[in-house]
């Protein structure tokens, strides 16, 4: 007999309109009719607005136009955060929550709220989000272990003297320590553009990483965890098409309208899986380093690890992504499916992990 499982999806963003749309774009892709052999899922949805108000519905399409990525005209009650949390505890009483917010505040503070309410959250702790959304902290943890290489570079903090030409190797990548997506990352090929790139990065964070540009390929590896066994499984490696001597930008990932707001995933994004018969050693190295990073960063459930691979075949860590909407177009689902794990099985694994961490099930 299947167990009933009430799951609250949290979409939108408390930060800004860009993040609000992004949260709907990704979270709205979750299949509302998702079921499994193990659980009888009952979903409800919380929409969080940049104004800070929350609303709750049983069907997402009742409040959101998923094609336009905007809220429909409705009479659904808007609540402040205190009232919303009380409603969650007294009325909804979810067994667990899935946070789809893509902004820093949504991914961390909202996750921490559910942890404080003792509601299990799919995808791990707020602490892990704080760490991985701070590139400087992530870099520091990995460099201290010595198991996962990062590109050579230097750290610039707000108020410091600007780095001299001798200190920086060109081309270089300038990125804010805390910056969502790739908006806070720029490739600098000419020294005369360095200061402008630093100023841009400082608009996102007080600390800036200036590191050597790695000419080569960009490859992602997904890792999933089983709380029941304590085992990690590195899935197939996927490669992203990148322009020669360039980095992937926001435009390579998202199609935006004239206002700069996301509309959909960039249609020209091209990916392919690495062939084990041709690149077995490289795949093994990246999978091994991804699992090492997962452990060293103290992650839970899953992680997506991006590497830049130089012309000699050496992988350098770029970043770790801990976001997944578990829809059919989510990159984790695509990689898992190619590795023999269906979307249904993947989501069941994540649900079971969250419940086991809270000792809800044995």
UniProtKB/TrEMBL annotation:
Keywords: ATP-binding, Ligase, Nucleotide-binding. It holds the Pfam family Dala_Dala_lig_C. One of its GO terms (molecular function) is ATP binding. Residues 140-355 form the ATP-grasp domain. Belongs to the D-alanine--D-alanine ligase family. This is D-alanine--D-alanine ligase. It comes from Stylophora pistillata (Smooth cauliflower coral).
